[in-house]
């Protein structure tokens, strides 16, 4: 996902406060596009304290039963975890269709 995001170009807009350019360069070297560094220092202790309050660090749905269900469906259909964004979208669409259709029967 990061690679796909960083290869596109954010187009210029009429807004003076909206920079354009490649996202990774805007983030790491904002001066290249005449922008400014908008980074904010964050206390690492505060970040560690918040990690237990978020599910973003997990690579699975927050509902363990749904995660188990999706894994069973994928196993039964000889599917593996997606390797790229396109595969992830197709896997999501398949699982959504499958669970909706099976739920209606």
Query: What is the general shape?
Result: extended
Mean pLDDT: 80
Helix/strand structural class: mainly alpha
Total strands: the figure is: 0
- Give me the number of helical elements: 5
The biggest beta sheet reads: none
Indicate the radius of gyration in whole angstroms. 20 Å
Question: Percent helix among the residues?
Answer: 40-55%
Order of helices and strands: HHHHH
Number of structurally distinct domains? 2
Task: Report the span from N to C terminus.
Answer: 35 Å
- Unreliable segments (pLDDT under 50, ≥5 consecutive)? none
The share of residues in extended strands comes to: under 5%
Characterize this entry briefly.
The chain is mainly alpha-helical. The protein is built from five helices and no strands.
Helix and strand topology:
Elements: H1 2-7, H2 23-28, H3 44-51, H4 64-76, H5 85-104
Structural descriptors:
2 domains; mainly alpha; 105 residues
Provide an overview of this structure.
With 105 residues, the chain is an all-alpha fold. It folds into two domains: 1-52, no CATH class; 59-104, no CATH class. Helices cover 50% and strands 0% of the residues. It is built from five helices and no strands. The longest helix has 20 residues, at 85-104. It is extended, with a radius of gyration of 20 Å.
């Amino acid at each position: 996902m990061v690679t796909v995001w960083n290869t596109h170009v954010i187009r210029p807009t009429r807004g003076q406060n909206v920079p354009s350019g490649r996202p990774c360069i805007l983030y790491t070297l904002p001066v290249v596009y005449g922008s400014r560094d908008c980074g904010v220092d964050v206390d690492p202790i505060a970040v560690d304290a918040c990690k237990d309050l978020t599910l973003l660090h997990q690579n699975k749905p927050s509902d363990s039963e749904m995660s188990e269900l999706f894994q069973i469906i994928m196993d039964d259909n000889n599917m593996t975890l997606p390797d790229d964004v396109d595969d992830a979208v197709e896997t999501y669409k398949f699982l959504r269709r499958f669970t909706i259709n099976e739920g209606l029967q």
